[in-house]
Amino acid sequence: MKLIQSRDNPTFKHLRALVEESRYRREQGRTVLDGAHLIKAASAAGVVFHRVVVTAKAMRQQEVQRIVEGGLPSRCELLEVSETLLRQISPVDTPAGIAAEIEIPRHSPVNVCGDVLMLEAVQDAGNLGTLLRTAAAAGVGRVVLSAQCAQAWSPKVLRAGMGGHFALHITEGADLTGELSTWQGPVLATALTIDAVDLYATDLRAPAVWLFGSEGQGLSAAMLQRATQRVRIPMPGGTESLNVAAAAAVCLFEQLRQRRI
Amino acid sequence: MKLIQSRDNPTFKHLRALVEESRYRREQGRTVLDGAHLIKAASAAGVVFHRVVVTAKAMRQQEVQRIVEGGLPSRCELLEVSETLLRQISPVDTPAGIAAEIEIPRHSPVNVCGDVLMLEAVQDAGNLGTLLRTAAAAGVGRVVLSAQCAQAWSPKVLRAGMGGHFALHITEGADLTGELSTWQGPVLATALTIDAVDLYATDLRAPAVWLFGSEGQGLSAAMLQRATQRVRIPMPGGTESLNVAAAAAVCLFEQLRQRRI
């Protein structure tokens, strides 16, 4: 197994650019996964792997060994890197010791069907990752992100997504209004407006588009107008706000509950 | 209004220590709030303010003016600081230009009654803040944190809590087992074990203690054993995981829904 020790190594510089530069990721159509959990999820989803890098220390862990020895596709390069170098391409303070360069999955365009989560200007990486993880768990198949959202395939968002990415069809940089123009079903948004209906009094059984906006501002007026139904999450505690990912979890799982009855 | 320009000013050093050092916060029993939203929430809750610091630029904002001119308690000191200094005591990259030093609210010990959210080793500041915000919104009155949790009153957790802190009775550094020993009602925990009952098939109407554990590990075996009922959130999407704050939002709002019928 080839060993990289220098930060001037071209492959290492390429990996670090993928981690640090959203533009380079977009140009290359590739990203870096950190840790065994994400790598296993991507592998199970049939994602194309270009290379896996490990530290000597991590190679002594059974979970890492199993990935390296059992699960790597034939064309995937395997490299050893020093701990210091691995730390520089990991989004966390205590890296797992294994990372992988993958092709960002490009699904062929599909018609909008089933449920869709549309996000406008969600810029916090942790929130975006949590939203993707929640959508995947709730069985929402498609997520559409406006150009103002954080990059879905950045290492930080991947980390918060915990593998949810690989169960979703994710469209980035989308014109949300355009996407909605071909959609015939309900378009739902949470709101505090007078016309908003209590979430639990709303029939959520039909396939729907859910709109959620940025943390600070919420949905733009233009998008809120596109909602065919505004819903209000009742909050008896006196505060009138939820984190956007918490609000989405409440809505998507209430929809799930109604469909199971 | 007194102006602080030097980072060697004793008051400024005190503020920075409150922001940066959890131990100093604990010793002093005080913390720092960043931004008008948190300051207004604390003020409305009757929290004791020691001082408010503003930049000259922020003083031109109507919202900040209204706080400074209308709402400050009589014993609260008002200081002007330079932009550079304010940035050093703000948890965000683009500070709001106003911060306040407050007394961490110390509620007198109350018996456990109503709903309680118990958190074991939740170390991520964003997750902890979101959990507090969700609990406050759902009307859960009390939150109990194990010693391994992040500090609830740190600037980062306060920021993610968005004022939820001030609607809650928060106990930190608690012995969760001890707290549970006097509790007669249901103790609920999410789990993937065989004996876990579907969340939506569980009667959640009685006042309950909800247990949630750390992101990576979940609840310890010891705490999971203390649950009188293990519940499973159905996840048709094929992934078997939710962010802890998303999971808590789903559970606490399902409880709310059941009680409203």
Automatic annotation (TrEMBL), chains A, B:
Listed SUPFAM superfamilies:
alpha/beta knot, L30e-like
Q: Which residues form the RNA 2-O ribose methyltransferase substrate binding domain?
A: 32-108
Q: Name one Pfam family in it.
A: SpoU_methylase
Q: Which GO terms describe its molecular function?
A: methyltransferase activity
**Signal peptide start and end residues:** none
Q: What GO terms in the biological process aspect are recorded for it?
A: methylation
Annotated keywords: Methyltransferase, Transferase
Asked whether the UniProt record includes Transmembrane among its keywords, one would answer: no
What family is it from?
Belongs to the class IV-like SAM-binding methyltransferase superfamily. RNA methyltransferase TrmH family.
The name this protein carries in UniProt is RNA methyltransferase
Native organism is Viridibacterium curvum
